[in-house]
TrEMBL record:
Keywords: Oxidoreductase. This is NADH dehydrogenase. It comes from Nitrospirillum iridis. GO terms for molecular function: oxidoreductase activity; protein-containing complex binding. InterPro entries: ComplexI_NDUFA9_subunit, Epimerase_deHydtase, NAD(P)-bd_dom_sf.
Length: 335
């Protein structure tokens, strides 16, 4: 420990993980640059630091000169960029996960940046049938080729208040008569709390012993997909049915759903679900970065309560109680 940070550039800083990382970095007193295609979308981050401490910047991630300007003078660069589904000409796995990752690493090395942290994904595999997993592996390879001292982090499913996993399925359970279990729900995951991931990222910079290593980040317990869906139902007090969906039918549905705005399910995601997403045990993890993993059971009730039967303040687990009068706001949220 003991590394000090003067200027940090955080690619993907306006995203789910990024906002938690920036909140922690701001406490170190460093200046934080947040490259974005549309800087206004990152303006909300400014309140996490002092006046002028957090600086959104207009950056074209496909342009060397633009990326170099965001990196110039920084002693720490963190790459959090990632997409779950492809769309349009620019949002492609190979461009975001591999080409951009390599460009950031190459330019960071050329600018004599002291620390580079690259966030990949658990399950990154050059031989995977999933394009997402292959592109994540290609990104790791591109980073290592030009910046061998970089720290690479591979988180499992990351959960927290703004996540797109538990919130999505809790919303489905609240609206639909059943929740589909793709492939029967046997695939295993080891979800990791976003606060723990953010701590690990900052600690990877401050811990000189982390340089050049790859870490797998997962929570304290592995669950099957079915167990995670049941956990959501238990947390929200829902009685929604869990219905097995065969792989073939899931792929067929994904063929149409990937054409819907927001792409709720793609064929590549179905392919990815055929492989477990748990720690291999062969690489260091949160413990080696000084972070104690937080269980999903501890955190989920703090933000899935809005999906509870009867609304956020219902007490379905406390036994019989007097009837409650509830109001509904313009967004359909009970309070």
């Amino acid at each position: 420990m003991g590394t000090s940070i003067r200027i940090a550039t955080v690619f993907g800083g306006a995203g789910f993980i990024g906002r938690h990382v920036i909140r922690r970095l701001a406490k170190t007193g460093c200046v934080i640059r947040v490259p974005a295609r549309h800087p206004g979308e990152a303006a909300f981050l400014k309140t996490n630091g002092a006046v002028g401490q957090i600086v959104p910047m207009a950056v074209d991630i496909a342009d060397d000169a633009s990326v170099a300007r965001a990196i110039d003078g920084a002693d720490v660069v963190i790459n959090l960029m990632g997409i779950l589904a492809e769309s349009g000409r620019r949002q492609r796995f190979d461009l975001v996960h591999a080409e951009a990752a390599g460009r950031i690493a190459r330019l960071a090395k050329g600018a004599d940046v002291a620390h580079l942290v690259h966030v990949s994904a658990l399950g990154a595999d050059a031989n995977s049938r999933s394009a997402y997993a292959r592109s994540k592996a290609a990104g790791e390879q591109a980073v290592r080729a030009v910046f061998p001292e970089a720290v690479i982090l591979r988180p499992s499913i990351v959960f927290g208040p703004e996540d797109n996993f538990f919130n999505r399925f809790a919303g489905m359970a609240a609206r639909l008569p059943f929740v589909p279990l793709i492939g029967g729900g046997a695939t295993r995951f080891q979800p990791v709390y976003v606060g723990d991931v953010a701590d690990a990222i900052v600690n990877a910079v401050l811990n000189v012993g982390a340089a050049g290593k790859t870490f797998e980040l997962g929570g304290p317990r592995a669950y099957s997909f079915r167990e995670l869906m049941q956990l959501i139902l238990d947390t929200t007090g829902r009685k929604t049915r869990l219905v097995s969906l065969p792989w073939g039918l899931a792929s067929l549905q994904a063929t149409f759903l990937e054409m819907v705005p927001g792409k709720p399910l793609t064929r590549d995601q179905v392919t990815l679900l055929k492989s477990d997403n748990v720690l291999s045990g062969k690489l260091p993890g949160l413990a080696e970065l000084g972070v104690a993993p937080t269980g999903a059971e501890v955190i989920l009730p703090t933000y899935l309560d809005r999906f509870q039967v009867g609304g956020r303040f219902a007490s379905h687990r406390q036994g019989p109680s007097l009837p409650q009068l509830t109001k509904v706001d313009a967004h359909g949220t009970h309070y």
